[in-house]
Structure formats: structure tokens, C-alpha cells
């Protein structure tokens, strides 16, 4: 199969070309060469980009994802790292469930004021102490 132009890869992967260039900088993908000024990629880059997208969706950083590839570019996924991320997601699901239930209670609470509701006060105390993580928060990364 023939190499793909950067625009074709961007289109098929559903990411802007700037993301592809950034992934190159991070060592996640590599072009096979250039045709004129345009980067060319092996068609296998699409599978690699799908793995990167899956990793990002699961909450892995780009540095963690980079470690999931061997020097030859083949996936080398650490099963312990996957288990640790699954446990982290389990904790997040539990925390979000408590938050959801607290918000539902506050929405239906018969107290004259939310500040008079013990459940809402506990929610406020937890938020003030940093006990409620912001959902989906990751350290910021470019594209």
C-alpha cells in the first residue's frame, strides 16, 4: 500500500495536521518521508493513532502512551499499567457516583436553603478541602 499524505492521515484519523506534527515532536509517530513539503506516512500510522486516541480516552498522558510502544514502533503495552489505570477509573467512578447522588439530593432537598441541608453542607466541606476532584482533569497537554 502506498504512503499517505499528512492531509489524508489527518482526515482519516479525525485530528488536525498540527496534532500529527505534535505527535512527531513527542516521538509517537514518524513520517516515512516527504513529497514536496508534505509529510508522508505509512498506512500503519492510522492504527497507531487509534491506539493513541484510545490511550488518551482512558486518561493516559502522552508520555505514558509513548512508553507503550517499543523502539520499532510495535505496541508494548504494560498490563500492570492498564490494571492501575482501571483501578484509578474505578475510584473516579465511585467519587463521581457520590457527587451525582449528593447533587440529586441537593436538587430535591426540602430544606428551606441548601446551606441548611446537612448533605449539601458535607458536599461543600468536601469541595473546600479538595476532596472532590474535578471530573476528567488531566494535566494540560498540547493537542
Q: How would you describe this protein?
A:
The protein has 143 residues and is mainly alpha-helical. The chain has six helices and three strands, in the order βααββαααα. It has a three-stranded antiparallel beta sheet with strand order 1-3-2. The two termini are 28 Å apart.
Short description:
The protein is mainly alpha-helical and 143 residues long. The chain has 6 helices and 3 strands. The protein is elongated and about 70 Å long.
Feature tags:
143 residues; elongated; mainly alpha
Strands, total number: 3
| Helix percent band | 40-55%
Strand content: 5-15%
What value does the Rg take, in angstroms? 22 Å
* Main sheet characteristics: 3 strands, antiparallel
- Overall geometry comes to elongated
Summed over residues and divided by their number, the pLDDT gives a mean of 87
Secondary structure category: mainly alpha
Unreliable stretches: none
Work out the helix count.
6
Along the chain, the helix and strand elements come as EHHEEHHHH
Strand line-up across the major sheet: 1-3-2
Terminal Cα span: 28 Å
Topology:
Layout: E1 4-5, H1 6-13, H2 17-25, E2 33-35, E3 38-41, H3 45-58, H4 62-66, H5 79-108, H6 118-128
Antiparallel strand pairs: 1-3, 2-3
Amino acid at each position: 500500500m502506498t504512503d499517505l499524505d499528512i492531509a489524508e492521515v489527518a482526515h482519516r484519523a479525525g485530528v488536525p495536521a498540527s496534532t500529527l506534527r505534535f505527535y512527531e515532536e513527542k516521538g509517537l509517530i514518524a513520517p516515512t518521508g516527504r513529497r514536496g513539503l508534505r509529510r508522508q506516512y505509512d498506512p500503519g500510522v492510522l492504527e497507531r493513532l487509534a491506539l493513541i486516541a484510545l490511550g488518551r480516552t482512558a486518561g493516559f498522558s502522552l508520555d505514558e502512551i509513548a512508553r507503550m510502544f517499543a523502539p520499532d514502533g510495535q505496541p508494548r503495552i504494560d498490563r500492570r499499567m492498564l490494571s492501575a489505570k482501571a483501578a484509578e477509573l474505578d475510584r473516579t467512578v465511585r467519587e463521581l457516583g457520590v457527587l451525582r447522588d449528593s447533587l440529586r439530593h441537593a436538587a430535591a432537598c426540602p430544606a428551606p436553603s441548601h446551606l441548611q441541608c446537612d448533605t449539601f453542607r458535607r458536599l461543600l466541606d468536601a469541595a473546600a478541602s479538595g476532596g472532590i476532584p474535578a471530573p476528567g482533569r488531566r494535566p494540560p497537554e498540547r493537542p
